[in-house]
Amino acid sequence: MTLDQLKMLVKIVETGSVISAAEALYRTQPTVSVAMKKLEEEFALKIFSRDQYRANLTPAGLALYERAKMVLRQSDSFEQLAHQLSTGQEPEIRIAIEGACPIPLFLRILKQCEERHPYTQFHLSVENLSGAVELLVQDKVDIAISPWPTEELQLDAIDFTHTTLIAVSSASNPLAHIERKLHFEDLQEQVQIIVRDSSPVPSDKQFGVIPEIRRWYVNDHHTKKQIILSGMGWGRLPEHLIQAELREGCLVQLEIENYPSPARLEIKVLRKHDHPMGPVTSDLWNMFQDLSKIGSVPLIAE
Question: Which residues pair with 60 in a beta bridge?
Fold first, then answer.
């Protein structure tokens, strides 16, 4: 069996006859007929029913035809991938995204890059706090998208977008019914829900953590949101994750004295300054740069 025989099989079915397939493939009719006869002999199967003028498939022939199309698609994909690799394009790009970042704009850019470079795989990981930046510093990812400030001189940064953290509780939480600015004393009997830093080397810095009150730690913002919705605590959440709940009144924004809420987070795209980039990573980086020229874009989910 050869790929050439499979191409002939598929073309016969598509065109309806051996003669038409031969013309489409720039082969002679005897060449195509002999190739199909050898294919049938090799597997001791009757692929075509030759009772009529048109080349009708037998049940076995239909099964082979469907699989032949799959094999040819895989062959084309293999050929294109080999061509891409021969030009130096990366087989994969690793990207770390901090969990507070809005995703839609990033996915729009990623889709454009994927359309230009369909045979480069993207490996995405969602990290918390300094986790995305730390993976970049350790050369475990190629690009990081993170709102957390960094003084790492070895990193290049592009302004990307921004999000806002808002302190909230559920409408059933007693905090939601205090008709004034909250004081830290009001929070003593409550639990602050905090997303744990996913960095392999967590920073000593803590953002928005109120000392000397009860805390629960979770691994992601969605779990944090569900706990707060249940009435079991309070905390700051990205606005784009809770817009609907705020509108519906399930969550209530809290005003806390001397506590930043809303707190705006500037989100940046980061790369290692001295880390060589392949053509696909460079193209993706340039897409982010082009976007930054029109200004940082806020993203709130509808």
Answer: none
Cα 190 from Cα 168, distance rounded (Å)? 12
No. of H helices and E strands in the chain?
A: 9, 12
Burial class of 203 by CB neighbour count within 10 A (0 to 12, 13 to 18, 19+): middle
User: Which pTM was predicted?
Assistant: 0.66
225-231: list long-range contacts, CB under 8 Å, 24+ apart. 227/193, 228/168, 228/169, 228/170, 228/193, 229/170, 230/170, 231/169, 231/170, 231/172, 231/173
- What six digits make up the tokens of 12? 């016969």
CB 244 within 8 A of CB 261: no
Q: Which amino acid is at 254?
A: L
Alpha-carbon distance 34 to 221, whole Å? 64
Cα–Cα distance, 165 to 207 (Å, whole number): 11
Q: What is the pLDDT of residues 137-188, one digit of tens each?
A: 888 999 999 986 556 668 899 999 989 999 999 999 999 999 999 999 999 8
